[in-house]
């Protein structure tokens, strides 16, 4: 992009597997970026100095509790054909058994769930069992928390509320992004 548009500012936003543990390998892609943003703190490991953590935003107008849909004693785990998802299914089953929860597994490749309908699905459960392979909450886990579900994360700790973000730091970063894009 810099070759074609040398005057343009480049902001890269990484979300996970595409960069996790691969900073050196991917240097040719990020080295000319003016700003690099990562969506989870674990992605900062091995990152260059111009990489900043900016948490995934959650639309709390869309993702909110609907108590009348909630079914106590239930859990949802979402999977796909990716080997890491398949490997975590057995772990999700063990977690649900340990917590005495009725587990529902949905394969996102077989059952397409439009983003606007995801809150209706999430609100049908008491728990959301997140992935196990990364020590960070997935975007879906954050949305589940916004809906009022309890989230079981990779270390089997149960999270019950959205993480708090330091507004002052986020504001500074947003202003940096805005000034870079001008």
Structural notes for this entry:
The chain has 182 residues and is α/β, with parallel strands linked by helices. It has 2 domains: 11-55 and 165-181, no CATH class; 67-159, Rossmann fold (3-Layer(aba) Sandwich). Helix content is 26%, strand content 20%. It contains 5 helices and 8 strands, in the order E-H-E-E-E-H-E-H-E-H-E-E-H. The chain has a 5-stranded mixed beta sheet, sandwiched between helices. Strands 1-2-3 form a 3-stranded parallel beta sheet, covered by helices on one side. A hairpin with a 5-residue loop joins strand 7 and strand 8. The longest helix is centred in the middle third of the chain and has 16 residues, at 83-98. It starts with 10 loop residues before the first strand and ends with a helix.
Q: Could you say how many structural domains there are in total?
A: 2
Structural class: alpha/beta
Q: CATH class of the largest domain, anyone?
A: Alpha Beta
What would the CATH topology of the largest domain be?
Rossmann fold
The value of Rg in angstroms is: 18 Å
The strand count comes to 8
Total helix count? 5
Low-confidence stretches: none
Which CATH-level-2 architecture of the largest domain? 3-Layer(aba) Sandwich
In one word, what is the shape?
elongated
Q: If you average the pLDDT, what whole number results?
A: 87
Largest sheet: 5 strands, mixed
Strand sequence of the main sheet, in spatial order?
5-4-6-7-8
Share of β-strand residues: 15-25%
SSE arrangement, N to C: EHEEEHEHEHEEH
| Residues in helices, as a percent range | 25-40%
- Ends apart, CA distance between termini: 16 Å
